[in-house]
Amino acid sequence: MTMHLLPAYWTTNNSKKRKKKKITPSMKASIEKHEKYLKKMGIDPNYKREPAPLKLDWASKQLPSRNINDYEWKVQTKKDAKQYNGNAVLGQAYNKGNLVVLSATEAKDSATGKRR
Q1: Contact, 95 vs 115, CB < 8 A?
Q2: Where does the chain show beta strands of DSSP type E?
Q3: Residue 102 forms beta bridges with which residues?
Q4: Residue of 26 and 56 predicted with greater confidence
Q5: How far apart are CA 91 and CA 102, in angstroms?
Q6: Among 42, 96, 98, 109, which residue's CB has the most CB atoms within a 10 Å radius?
Q7: Which phi and psi (to 5°) does residue 30 adopt?
Q8: Contact 92, 113 (CB under 8 A)
């Protein structure tokens, strides 16, 4: 079996759960200082921005709704399968070749399939 080159997320075997960093007193002080600065600037520190609605360049159309009973849920079986009723002939045009559709003259030719 060969080794294949895969992206890093497939080849890693490290499955450790990482611990969250604890907030140190200096980090806590800097967060409080930043919140105080935001409040001084007139910004709510707990503000969560809501995304704007999507604007499209074209007008969106509502597709007509269809009932699930409108679809035909018939299973395809062999006797329902389409069958060819023509007069084309399948055969080998060349020695050890694949099957191909032969014309009427090629089908009658005895040398067909013996060409090199």
Answers
A1: yes
A2: 89-92, 99-102
A3: 89
A4: 26
A5: 6
A6: 109
A7: -70, -35
A8: yes
Residue 24 has pLDDT above 90, yes or no: yes
Could you give the CA distance from residue 15 to residue 33 in angstroms, rounded to a whole number? 37
Closest CA to 93 of 78, 62, 72, 114: 114
Alpha helices in the chain (DSSP H): 8-11, 25-40, 104-108
Angle at 79 between CA 77 and CA 81, to 5 degrees: 70
Contacts of residue 102, defined as CB under 8 A and 6 or more positions apart, other chains included, come to 88, 89, 90, 91, 93, 112
Instruction: Estimate to the nearest angstrom the gap between the alpha carbon of 21 and the chain centroid.
Output: 37
